Fold:
Amino acid sequence: MRKGWILLPLLLLAACISPEERMAMEAAQRQADMEECQKLGFHPGTTELGNCVLKLREIRATQSQTDAIQAATPPYPYYDPWGRPYWY
Structure:
């Protein structure tokens, strides 16, 4: 039991990322979005490329929100023919 209390703070610290790492991840994602939009045929420096990148960010944000809602929603109980709830 004591080992668990010792390991818990270490695990929590290992899950944290520094602001520099976060900025590097965001820059890599931005670069990947730019490359994806250029593969789709949008040219650098155009409004259409900017709109494409924004649309990709919007899709990612919507997916993140959907994942968070699904993770926070408890499972829906099902009912058998006699009205008793059960979960899959």
